[in-house]
UniProtKB/TrEMBL annotation:
Official protein name in the record: AraC-like ligand binding domain-containing protein
Signal peptide annotation: none
Keyword DNA-binding: yes
Pfam families recorded: AraC_binding (PF02311), HTH_18 (PF12833)
Boundaries of every HTH araC/xylS-type domain copy: 175-273
UniProt organism field: Candidatus Enterococcus mangumiae
Keyword entries, A-Z: DNA-binding, Transcription, Transcription regulation
Entry-linked SUPFAM superfamilies: Homeodomain-like, Regulatory protein AraC
Length: 301
């Protein structure tokens, strides 16, 4: 779970050469994780506080404040916040042939995924500037595209250096469990059913998963469902009841109770607050304060 403020382009981009997709800021809770997942566009994360791990292909990176990590289109990635010092990060997603060329000429180049930046504040300022615009407005979309070019120019000029990862393999059993939950969370799913699908003993599966991720399978399943519900509440007009059933709860009462338990507010109040979030013109420190005061919300970043 995480606390997040974000901006997403819900429409077809004006240009396919280089386009802005979404951006935002998150303050994660201990052991907040995302993935394994495959993205269709680039996502650049800037670690502002705390630490965590990023895993892609057969490499794992220990990251902290000042680090950048890149998610490339088509790569399966997984990242996990530290249990004691969970990270705060900002991110921006973009795509297009121009993005491919620029990334190739940056420190990331081909098959590089993380770097130590010489000054993260400049990236944060650009992403903050993006939050002042709406992708639904044509002039604003041009501004967002311009800011994306500006951020990529900054990436080319960054005097930082590459951070090398270590060879480390997560338990395939834990990864298969996460993947199965991500694909079937909307159905009636139990730990026993997952164990049967993976042809392993339930107790062994639960033990391996807890050792790898620090939370139980049941807690992770509920988190995935609440994450998805929060996303739908933020970006759709579907009823709370429809969303509850869509994410795998068989009772609106149970969903409402769990949503309040995990986020600290009702689904209705969450939706209302997200629709009225005012963040234009705020500084990075003011935004951090907003995240501190915000109830726990979720966004798949």
């Amino acid at each position: 779970m995480e606390k997040a403020i974000f901006l997403k382009n819900k429409h077809q981009p004006l240009s396919k050469e280089l386009y802005f997709d979404f951006c935002g800021f998150s303050k994660t809770l201990p052991f907040h994780s995302f993935g394994p997942a495959i993205r269709h566009d680039y996502i650049l994360h800037i670690v502002m506080e705390g630490k965590g791990i990023y895993r892609v292909k057969d490499r794992q990176y220990q990251l902290k404040k000042g680090d950048l990590f890149l998610i490339r289109p088509g790569d399966a990635t997984f990242y996990l916040a530290d249990g004691e010092e969970p990270w705060v990060y900002s991110w921006i997603s973009f795509g297009g042939p121009v993005a491919d060329k620029i990334i190739h000429h940056s420190l990331f180049k081909e098959d590089q995924y993380t770097m130590v930046s010489s000054e993260i504040s400049k990236y944060v300022e650009i992403i903050l500037a993006c939050m002042n615009y709406s992708p639904e407005n044509l002039a604003d979309e041009l501004q967002l595209t311009a800011l994306t070019y500006q951020l990529l120019a900054l990436l080319l000029e960054d005097g930082g250096h590459i951070r090398l990862g270590e060879q480390k393999n997560y338990s395939s059993l834990a990864i298969d469990t996460i993947q199965y939950i991500e694909e079937h969370y909307s159905k009636r799913l139990t730990v026993e059913a997952i164990a049967q699908h993976l042809a392993v003993n339930r107790s062994h599966l639960s033990r391996v998963f807890k050792n790898q991720l620090g939370i139980s399978i049941k807690e992770y399943m509920i988190g995935v469902r609440i994450n998805r519900a929060a996303f739908l509440l933020s970006l759709t007009e579907e009823s709370v009841e429809a969303i509850a059933y869509q994410v795998g709860f068989n009772s609106l009462v149970v969903f409402s109770r769990m949503f309040k338990k995990f986020t600290g507010e009702t689904a209705t109040s969450y939706r209302k607050r997200m629709n009225n979030e005012k963040i234009k013109g705020v500084s990075a420190e003011q935004l951090k304060k907003q995240l501190e005061e915000q109830a726990i919300i979720s966004w798949a970043t």
